Amino acid sequence: MLSAGRPWDAQVTSFFLANHHQLRRYLIAQGCAPCDSDDIVQDAFLIVRERWETVSGYAKPKAYLYKVALRLWQRQAAKQALRRYRGDPEPRLAGLPDPRDTAATVEVNDTLIRWFRQLPVQQRKVAALRLIGGLSEVETAKILDLSLGTVKSQLNAARKRLRQLKDQDDPAKGGT
Amino acid sequence: MDRIDALVHRMTIATDTGEDNAALDRFIQASHRLDTDPEERQRIHDLADLIDTQDAAYGQGLSALEHGDKAFAEPLLRSADAAGIEEAAALVAALQDLPSDAVPHSLRQRAADLTSQRLILNATNLGATAHMNTSTPQRPAQPSTLKAETTSGRRLLRLLRHRRGKNITLAEITALLLDVIDVRDPFTRAHGERVADLAALVAGELNMPRTRVEEIRFAAMFHDIGKLNIPTSILRKDEALTVEEFTCIKLHTARGPEIVQAVAEIFDAPIEKDAQRIINASLQGISHHHERYDGTGYPSGLAGQQISEHARVIAVADIFDAMTTSRSYRAPLTADQAVAEIHNLAGKHLDPRMVEAFLSVTDHDSWSEPGPSSSVPTNSGETAWQSHDDPSHPLRVAGHT
């Protein structure tokens, strides 16, 4: 339990333990570097802690947590993309991944992250919230400000691609 | 669960045992720093406020775009774009491509569609309908009650626990839809409720089965829900509409059933069978409430018995309510005057059988004539309203008077 501060810290602690790992995985699947993801996870939970009285009134405070984390990540990714463009245009000229693609710099030794890195951006956004974060389709639509129909279609496309990637990884099915 | 979903889930939760404790230790330290360091506390509050501001900017940006105010909309949408909202980015790009400050109808329509989509999704997340737990259609809670309930976290959670595992009822769907309409257009909500009450009386007068009366009540309550997708600048326009704008108004009869069907998809739990049946049966009534008995209405120009019974009942109730409420371009008729007008419309705009039933309803001792106080919702802040689909008044389309 947290040692000081808020009457609801016990609840926040339980909420943290139930969600921090998934949230970190979600951020890394989005393209966030692992060291940055720790800071964003922490800030997101601190914001939830500061807003707990309001947030706990929502049907699912988890949706608020993911929205906050996504916004913090978007903010950081935008700054990083700007720095990369200003500092070094060479990677683009060399045909390397677009630095605006936030998943391009993630380590590829993690199978799940490697799969998500190969999804188109919108499929990745939707599938990461739904499949890694475990949010509902409606919550996913609300967080991303997309229609429910778009979420469903992007999710189906992502599932199809993920199955292909799994089969490619599976030697019994002809993968490498 | 899909097998790939299950696999991704397993791969997500795989973790080493020491990770939780280390992460929690770091979080406890960060919390302590926040509690003791004013600068750190300010940083976290600023981030939280920024996220709130981005959400508000998107909503206000869409609203400004609906009104055709490019100068106001663009910076707000830019802020939402910076938050990673893809639609905001697309709208900013579209605004930049415009040759002038005039916002075309297609962009205003897009803003209205996105606003409607957000309203519906937000309503489900607020859980504003959780207090409705009976299947009997009833007068929904007043907005103030809904607001109080949505801000009472403990009560809401208790209700949600109570609801867990149960199917969604018609009353819950009704409350959610009314909540959405109320945010966008309180007049349409009040109008829908009055038309629903009157249509149910007419259907009852015709000795329709109880289930049919329920279908008609539901369809009448939401006959104008398609107006959620009409840009506010058109809905509230003082002058006569252009042909393009009137086409947009007419589309509310097509958008209405789409919205009602879409709402049925946004609940996590299944919908009760009876509720689903009533929703399905209501769609024809919503689609065709502007058809006229003589075939001069829209959207399909249907005539006589081609028009669904639901729509023919709603048409009578709708026109009576339109006549007896004020508009910015005319004063309301008295109930007696409206009844006489409706009598004259039998066989023309209206089905004579429905008119006869309506007249019987108004002859009953128990019939309470609508008073002036019911003509305009008290929380609307308006004294007279536009209604460019007013069935009691000639079209006000430029060049077609």
From TrEMBL, chain A:
Source taxon at top rank: Bacteria
Keyword Transferase: no
Keywords: DNA-binding, Sigma factor, Transcription, Transcription regulation
CDD domains referenced in this protein's UniProt entry, alphabetically: Sigma70_r4
InterPro entries registered for this protein in UniProt: RNA_pol_sigma-70-like (IPR039425), RNA_pol_sigma-70_dom (IPR014284), RNA_pol_sigma70_r2 (IPR007627), RNA_pol_sigma70_r4_t2 (IPR013249), RNA_pol_sigma_r2 (IPR013325), RNA_pol_sigma_r3/r4-like (IPR013324), WH-like_DNA-bd_sf (IPR036388)
Domain RNA polymerase sigma-70 region: 18-81
Keyword Amino-acid biosynthesis: no
Limits of the RNA polymerase sigma factor 70 region 4 type domain: 117-162
Protein family (similarity comment): Belongs to the sigma-70 factor family. ECF subfamily.
NCBIfam families: sigma70-ECF
UniProt name for this protein: SigE family RNA polymerase sigma factor
TrEMBL record, chain B:
Regions of compositional bias (Polar residues) in chain numbering: 371-386
Record-linked CDD domains: HDc
Region annotation Disordered: where it falls in the sequence: 130-150, 364-401
Domain HD-GYP stretches: 166-374
UniProt protein name: HD-GYP domain-containing protein
Pfam families: HD_5
Domain annotation HD: ranges: 188-323
Annotated organism of origin: Actinoallomurus vinaceus
